[in-house]
Input
Amino acid sequence: MNKMPYRIDIGLEVHLQLRTETKVFCSCPVKFGALPNTQTCPVCLGFPGSLPVLNEKALEYAVKVALALNCTIENKIKFDRKNYYYADLPKNFQISQFDMPIGREGRIDIVMPEGRKKIRIKRVHLEEDAGKLIHKGAYSLIDYNRAGTPLLEIVSEPDMASPQEAYEYLLILKSILAYLDVSDCNMEEGSLRCDANISLRPEGCDSLGTKNEIKNMNTFKGVKSALEYEVTRQSVALKEGSKIVQMTRLWDADKRITTAMRSKEESHDYRYFPEPDLVPFTIAGTFVERVRESLPELPEIRRMRFIKDFGLSTYEAELLSRERRTADFFEETQGLCRSPKAVANWIMGDISRILNERHMELSETKLAAVNLSDMIKLIENGTISSKIAKSLIEEMMESGEAPGEIISKKGLTQISDESALEGIIDRVIKENQKSVTDYKNGKKNALGYMVGQVMKATAGKANPKLVNELLHSKLS
Amino acid sequence: MGLNALTAHELKRLFNDGRAEPRDVLRDIYGRIEKAEGRLGSFTYKRDPDKIFSEASDYGRGSMLSGIPCAIKDNICRKGEPATCASKILDTFKPPYSATCVKKLEDAGALIFGRLNMDEFAFGSSCETSCYGPTRNPWDTTRSPGGSSGGSAASVAADETIIALGSDTGGSIRQPAAFTGVVGMKPTYGRVSRFGLIAFASSLDQIGPITKDVRDCALTLKAISGHDEMDSTSVDKPVPDYTQYLEKDLSGLRAGIPKEYFVSGVDREVEKAVRSSIEIFKELGAEISEVSLPHTRYAVSTYYIIAPAEASSNLARFDGVQYGFRSEDCDNLQQMYVSTRSKGFGEEAKRRIMLGTYVLSSGYYDAYYLRASKVRTKIRNDFKDAFEKCDFLITPTSPTTAFRLGEKSGDPLSMYLADIFTIPANLAGIPAISIPCGFSEAGLPIGMQLMSDAFREDIILKAAYAFEQATDFHKRRCPDITN
Output
């Protein structure tokens, strides 16, 4: 975005499905991919006479998230009904929290090229998810398996000043949420969803402009693209002197545009009122403290520790700490081989390249920390070359075999025996007289060529350092 | 007189002595129903007699309600049976679960054999808004049995069942009990699980017994009370054996007479009957004093904001999507909602849904719902203050005796005022009982209401029992309505 006469204000609403064993107000299992309407009961189907009972685990997870986002915890838990009609909503109201969210006034920091920036969290509240509609031509089918899944709504203040900041916020937020291990945090599968509010205002103006709500983004990149589109659309409109009309718009990922969904006048009047079936109650301070103590080390703290304890660069520490599993794997491996730099290089280099190529997560491979650590030790003690190691790593990720096993199976041990190499070196000298002459005439890189020939003849198994030394002494 | 005219505790004695069996009682009950139903219309559903007769042979001994026939209001779910709330919109609905109180009654051995008529979704005080037509008062079949638990009260009064369950949101157990000369109790909010009760107003609804005398009321209350994991609003307090408090001496008990309940608009005969009842309490040893519940006059307006607000939300689920009636007269989802609800709900249900939707609307919430909630707290505090000075309160249950069918159905406001004395107990969440305390010159029963502090059902049961033992209003049977 080039110089613009407008300031951008973006706020995000993130919905997070909590991975509890049972639903938030009944004891149906929270299970994805089950046959439609098999994970239901009279309560989550909203049958008459049924009543909700709060799942304590969902409350615990909600408090956990609120604490990790540095929120103040409301000690009184109260639920409200949000009334609206839709076919995926069994009771035609959603049990949610209106004026007393579990957490409020939190914050997280994002890191931008110009430095750290604080994004305020307005509120974190617990509610129930709706079912799913499957449209089939002239009719629609309803799958209520998802109805009643605990859902956490995390609402930011409009503190993000660009689509890029919004994107960074989502990355950091997801990183924190994934650390807490309370959700799958998978946007494509819908366990994490994001709506955005965006408004523009003239530079120097103190009050926010008229906002538009953008829905239907399925990836973080999609959120960024939709916001970029809105910045352009709204700034063009403002430049032309048009007024921005408050409305909800839908992102079309194929056409890469947003389209009007409903105006403010058409929006629901949710008629919130206190949920009479769930009596408000006070959560004990000890409960909150217990949850606080159960919080894992969060990514930011871990990043700083990686820098301090292992001498990693800020960049390396950031990359390695972002995902809890990666960070755990890094720490476990380095604990075994005590070579943090080498472990970092392997994870950030070949391993992540292979993962990217295969669209896999580290946890989906069979790579064990002890095997990576052993491989690094084998490189360090000269048993294998880095080149051999590069071919090993792929196999270790696939088969889960120890490096030693693969090496002995394939005979990949580095040749560090002078007598074994001497014959090959003599033959290479004999076959490459031109290079010998070049080298003797001062062309130093001719030696490199001959080292390469020896490596080729030994299928890469020769110890390159030793080959270098032997060639050098024979030719001088 | 058949076995159907006896009380549960009388039958129990006969069962234990081997002088009668549950199936004999059922036979008399089904016989009575066959004769009386044409005039009364108390029932919406009765189980196949052959089936229940064979079930009955397993009962008769054991726990207190073992083998006692019982009927329940049509808004209380029993697994596999229709539960219609007397509404077309739930015409075909059969819940796959039983209400907790039904399970508890059945665990206590009761034989639940039928379902009772009511105002649609309990919206009414006359039993006239039922989609099946009104139930009639057995004392005068041109009159209403009261409502909304009109079927429950009429069936008990007419000996069509031994005991019945009703539900009470603003007086729906007590007012019909008063109109039909039987005993009806609304327990403390949270005493009886609401799981399986099709909700009208969740913060006010409570299930309770309707019986022929106070001892049966105590027995039934004990059977259905207690904490339920399925209802977060049910309270985890031990359930006493209420029958142990049934004594004839009230010495040391302090009775309060709230002056706001003896005002103009109360039928002269009703006031007279209640005033002479107060004299009887005095003779029984109770100390009588006047108390004041200054916010009583706001109760009806407060109630008619909170109750419809909750109802509008509770009834939103009846949309034709999953169960019950669905209008076929539609091309899209929106039309399906509108058509289903337009055809499925009766006039009073629609009126309350609209009222409730209005008071919760953005811009009106503070002026109506929020303010009503604050007044509710004041009403609750009135009672708290009163119960520091006395143990229980004595009032009329209803300002009038049973009115004629059709007399108020065209005038919702005058109908709403029929609950003026019963609504405060729901708003405050306290227990209240209505017991017979006299008859009008026209021979219509008059009811008296006793209220106590939350979870002090023992006090009003004790007072009610002592009064009942000193009088014989409860023994008078309704006229023969079979010819």
About this structure: DSSP finds 15 helices and 16 strands in chain A.
